[in-house]
């Protein structure tokens, strides 16, 4: 299936002279970008490219012609071009050389390429034979919906009846073909042809016209009008066939009332505003059109009815005043989405649905529903290109994509406005590491964003080199970055890699940069030169950690969640506990470091009395929902050296069983050559590899 694999943009809207590549990865795309970042420029690049298939070369060229008021050339490039100068009338001199370097190119998975520039629409194909209808068919079977287009459904004064004619002209006719869908032209093309084929000329100064003498041309024009109106009527009936079922299925459950939607072609397109005039020739009386001719204002009415208790319906007059914005948007979406029904928009290889800030006027329940619709109804038929400037909605989309188990089908990207004028926007694949993102932002001179991602990367590279046991407090809370650094140094010293020996300046570098890394407010208070130096130092510090301190190999001896129970060999005493962090053996080369686990105390009993305090001989009020957490070495030490149970280190280990099996903790430790022993020098219980 020939889907878009990448888009190249140069000197088009928000993209300046340096060519930018947006990698679609032959996937659905979720793109976050703040206003002004270039996000909507990508949307409009796709739209302009596909719409070019319905336009003449001259009509496409105007977008890349500096002197044309409709040009879409990047403004900074336009004004910075060596050929840019204005004549005394304010017109650009020598405009032909400026538009040559502006273009949009779409590359497809089957190797074809479609391009728009000052020369119009062109392309290439691997076979050498370009399908001239491909882009036109792709346009016919795809769709573009932006929030501002939805607003046009109900953005009327309270005194006005909703007329969707202009909405259809701008946003719907380009996707509906003539001859009830069997024709080769869309209704937008037909409407333009009607405008160009009027059998009269208008004098805009005196508001008069001159009618052609060709009766055939007049009749052809009337027939064209009739066919067009029949097609509009046909497609409105098609929409009416599907819109209520769509609304009732997806949106009605969100509201308490039932409504019915109907579109009506109330006033058809016609040129009937004229007074008849007669003339005589050779004794015969003839009729002709005359002054004040013009188009009637076509009217496509939206009727919204609410269901009464008895099942009847009442028309909502002026719904833009009666219904809230979220519900009006839901109605607009139901109409727009009904146009995607397979009977209206048949399947076509590569078809896509581009949505720009579609849901910003909806509350969360409506957003949730619409995302379900997109991911269940449309993602199986269309590639989805979803653009948003709202970070919370972007995060919500990520959640919904994961909820629908579609993560592998999406390319998640972010786009940011460059800090320097004339540079291209920064596009970041969200699958990049924090380090890669920091590098990109640094290149774009967005130092605040660089520092935030550097902090994340610094914390990650340190924590990646620590056992899980070290990453949280006993209460399960995360440490601060300074404490992670302390644990990092101690851990590697135990593995015979002393930081002060391998890199005498590293700890000093951290201490110097610590305030900058830890204090987010510092990011806004430093001048650019200081900022740049500090950021470079942190990049170097991260590089040194990766180079000098490899991630240790880790062997899991007992994994988190394993149950253990000690059974006294002679007394009626048991003690149950659970491993709460991995009991592991970390190693680099021939050096080992034992990471002792935290444990949760589950229960104990003496002589069948639960929670009996052995030192007080009283029952302890023990809350199993908030259990005691302590290191395994502390549990062993208490049983052997504090409580009067007559145990040795080995007897405790030999009578501690794993997961109620016959395997003892002593046997398991022996298999890894791990020994608990009493260190008389430090006067405490210790552990080592023998």
Report on the structure:
This protein is α+β, with helices and mostly antiparallel strands. It folds into 4 domains: 1-142 and 350-432, P-loop containing nucleotide triphosphate hydrolases (Rossmann fold), CATH 3.40.50; 151-344, no CATH class; 433-551, no CATH class; 554-689, no CATH class. 35% of the residues lie in helices and 23% in strands. The protein has 21 helices and 29 strands. The chain has a 6-stranded mixed sheet, sandwiched between helices. It is elongated. Residues 289-293 and 520-527 have low confidence and may be disordered.
Uncertain segments are 289-293, 520-527
Integer tally of domains: 4
Number of strands: 29
Rg, rounded, reads 37 Å
Mean pLDDT score: 84
Strand order of the largest sheet: 7-15-16-3-17-18
CATH class type of the largest domain:
Alpha Beta
Count of helical regions? 21
What share of residues is helical?
Answer: 25-40%
Beta-strand residue percentage: 15-25%
For the largest beta-sheet, the strand count, sense and barrel status come to: 6 strands, mixed
CATH architecture of the largest domain: 3-Layer(aba) Sandwich
CATH superfamily of the largest domain: P-loop containing nucleotide triphosphate hydrolases
* CATH topology type of the largest domain: Rossmann fold
Going by helix content, strand content and strand pairing, the class is alpha+beta
Outline? elongated
Calculate the terminal CA-CA distance, rounded to whole Å.
62 Å
